[in-house]
Amino acid sequence: MDQADFVHMVRMSEQASAQDSRAYRRSVAAFAALGYAWVMGCLVLAGGLIAWLLPQLLHGRFRFGLLWGLVAALGLLWASLRALWVRFDAPEGVAVTAREAPALFEALERIRKKIRGPAIHAVYLDGEFNASIRQTPRWGLLGGAVNTLTIGLPLLMALDRQRLLAVLTHEYGHLRGDHGRFAAWIYRTRLSWLRLHDSLRQDESVASAATQAFLNWYFPRFAAKTFALARQDEYEADGIAGRLLGAEVAAAALVEIEVKGAWLQQRFWAGHWRTAATAALPAGPFQAMRVQLTEAPEAGFAREALRQALARVSNLADTHPSLRDRVASLGGQAVLPEWSRRGCLSLLGDGAERWMGHFDKQWCKDNANGWKQHHAWLGRVRERVQALKVARATSNANELVEEASLRRLLDPNADLRPLYEQALQRSAEHPAALQGLAQTLADGDRAARLQALQRLWDAGQDYRWWAARHAVEELETSRPGLVHDAAALKLWRERRKQAEEGEERAWEELRQTPYFSQVGRHDLSSFELGEVQAELTRCKPVVRAWLVCKMLREFPRRRAYLAFVELPGMSDEDRFELCRWLEGNLSLPGPVLVLWAGESPTLEEIRRGAFEPIYPLLNA
User: Fold this and answer.
1) Which residues cross the membrane (predicted)?
2) Partner of 340 for a Cys bridge, out of 74, 160, 215, 545, CB 3.0 to 4.6 A?
3) 547 - beta bridge partners?
4) Which residue from 264, 253, 250, 335 is spatially nearest to 293, judged by alpha carbons?
5) Rounded to the nearest 10 degrees, what angle do helices 21-58 and 64-84 cross at?
């Protein structure tokens, strides 16, 4: 099933759900039943064949064809039983009991009674900035359910009690009432098919091949047909949280999570790993995180994080709606809230400090090797910075920009403006130097910033989208003593739209297949490559990675990349999400499309077309 057909089926399902929700749910149930019918049909067929063939073989009618048929029937029986009884891994994290955290379990019980939800069988605590409820099949496709709630320790640090309860109510809301039970059943069924599909990939038997062929046809259609149900379920869960805790509380929780999540990723974790420059051994992050998450984010950062979140639209890559749509469904507007003044670690009772120490210790253990490599790499960065500083009198613009970039890695607050100005003295329209200068100018110096962005726009089309986006952001930001310039804003918005169209064409080029046409070896310097390798080291699921340059017709001089990663033991959904995360977080000097080794491209195609892997390090 290609992407166009998937999109079409999703849109048809959304339309059917909007026109007649009951009829749509009946059609989903019927299509889910088709999957069960396939498994039961295979089971009956396998049993019948065995019942017919086995007596003939036992009574001496030995023929090769009969023996082959029995083997095939046994294989079909085994594949059918695997489909009926899919095993799931235990949740990651540490189990928390009612005795250890009575206040948390009392709050969960109050939520359960108010929404008339089922019991939660286990509660886990982990180190993620998230909360999720997971309903896994107890007996595979045969039925039953185990409800597991996982709460991230950073979430308990960041939100006040009411907002955290809104989040937990949203998660619990997925299991409520008849609609919730139906959606949960569909979710469990989808999870079972996905796990079965992954487990059969390496099985080359005839029986498994037949089941794989059915799943390759069935599962994409099942996912598309149930997409509208899953998205509607998110809105309904938000509505339950709004009714129980108040729409304003639920909306504020959504915005606060979005902004503080961006702060954790862009500021906190980057700063924590930066301490490896002076510390050879890793330090636990959660104690420091606890203090900083209760502080209000810097106003400029919060505004930009919210602006970026609101710019994202609901798409088919995720059943979760966009922040803008979720807040609108609650009847509110996405604005920066009054920040939580204290977290709610008190819900964990007297064990909060113990859990903090546990996760700090576990983080240090899990990241010991990556920290060691990052410490060594930052040492090489310091040496390179020192060498560039010594030679600064004769450095060209590229070398001065490189020094500024490396200094920013070591200290994001370093004063880099003199380096960029010196680079522009040696090459007046150097794009990277103009970009760096625009970033270092003071917030109140609008005229100088717009002048630098205008020069960057004129320097070439490769940087035009960046220049237009930042010019619009600057002109849309109210600053004391500065008059709103409507004409300039209109001009830059038109330029941004023009540049975005070019970026979209370039992105389509990057995604075009075959992937290995118009590619060459990567062009990263040793320091650029070292940073990417250090980031991959911190991404535990990645066992190998390749990187190639992609030549774009839209921007012939732009550095653009394809990255391929090997991610064993993950579902395709998790692989998709991780690849999208890597696209936004790998420190590459240009856009990157990240793909995993799977059906397209295959691992063998990557080995043939992507040159040697860049990770893991051969000398690691």
Assistant:
1) 28-54, 66-85, 139-159
2) 160
3) 563
4) 264
5) 150
